[in-house]
Amino acid sequence: MAEQLVEISDTEVRIEFTLNSKCRANVTMKSLSPTAPIAFKVQTSSPHKFLVSPPTGLIPPLSSTTFRVVLKPQTHYPSSFPRSHSDRILIKTAPYHSDSAADSEFLSQWFSSLPSTVDFKLRVAFVGPSLLRHAVGCGDVDSARNIIKRQRSVLSELSRGEAESLLRVAAELVNPDNMVNLLLESGLKVEPVEADADSEWKSKGWNELHVVAASDRMQEVSDLVKRVSDVDHRDKEGRTPLFIAAANGNRRMVETLIEFGADPTAADYCGRSAVDVARDNGHEEVSKALERGEMVLTAARRGEFQLLESLLRRGAAVNYRDQYGLTALHAAAIKGLEKTVALLLKFEADIESRDNDGHTPLHLAAVAGGVETVEALVKRGADFNAVSNGGSTPLSIARALLHDDVVQALINKPGM
């Protein structure tokens, strides 16, 4: 058996998972060699999902170094968690007996030439409050227990509101006892809630998303919007959760709800929209954010590139939607405005955003027949197999409209 050259900080890489966000974990290696530097090379079993920085390097004798594993934004929860059945991190190590400079490309080739290396295989585990809430909502007691076991702080770091919400989710399961007991016995701390609390918001016609929107419980929004049937649920006065957030001046909540599809034009029964109530309540920052979102969409529709760039640089909401669910990227795509599409993507527009009919920007680019726009979207990772509510894919649309160049651009992509 080869002599161990380094000591690894853990036997698995624990990544705090959040939907649609980059997630990171650091791994520390300590050299056990008193004389020679130790070269290392890190590989993943799923390079389409993970990035490693740095992927190669040298560890000075008896010193330590750290590399970072980055999980690219994921639109779905892991198929298995906390421990992933499919993901692995492989670390190759070898003594480096040379005075030559060793950049990443050189070390990668150097490792390929070695007859043998001392390797370590690390498992990947996904943890974090978002994933715990998902496990609780699914009634998956074993996964919830294993997340808590791996991340002891996951419960103690929850705010009071988050803890109460998590316990409520557990209590609403068909068979809640095991999950509720697990959370309480593992240290979930909740203060007694007065009986009037729930009845008060229910009397207003609020759902749980209204309650979260009225507070600053940002961590709960992404999970909650996937469970509620209507992100624009109206209370007894016609107010949506977005309206409540705007009335309270919570810009972060407003922008997050819009990104998840909330309708910024929805008015209450008195005819006031979110921007109206924000302006009336003196929340200038929120009203300007909402107004700039409308301007982003208008500028994209008109191809006003300089105005659009100026708005985005000033922090306007790139994923603002109109009442039809259309974003600026949809608007630019259907107009075939390749330069505008590239600008929106540069500012992290949601490339898989769907309008009310389930169309992505790529669907609408296929409608327009602009092959350059289609290629730009596909190159940036647009799903060319996406299916709309009516069952159409970008390819079927292009074929139906006889856009032969677009058809060829799509069928020449791998995976078709």
Automatic annotation (TrEMBL):
Where does the record place a coiled coil? none
**Keyword field contains Lipid biosynthesis:** no
Q: Which SMART domains match?
A: ANK
Any keyword Repeat?
yes
Q: Where are the ANK repeats?
A: 237-269, 291-323, 324-356, 357-389
Q: Which SUPFAM superfamilies match?
A: Ankyrin repeat, PapD-like
Kindly give the InterPro entries that the UniProt entry links to this protein.
Ank_Repeat/CDKN_Inhibitor (IPR050776), Ankyrin_rpt (IPR002110), Ankyrin_rpt-contain_sf (IPR036770), Ig-like_fold (IPR013783), MSP_dom (IPR000535), PapD-like_sf (IPR008962)
Annotated transmembrane regions? none
Q: Report domain MSP positions.
A: 3-127
Alphabetically sorted, this entry's keywords are: ANK repeat, Repeat
Instruction: Report which superkingdom the organism of origin falls in.
Output: Eukaryota
Name assigned to this protein: MSP domain-containing protein
UniProt organism field: Linum tenue
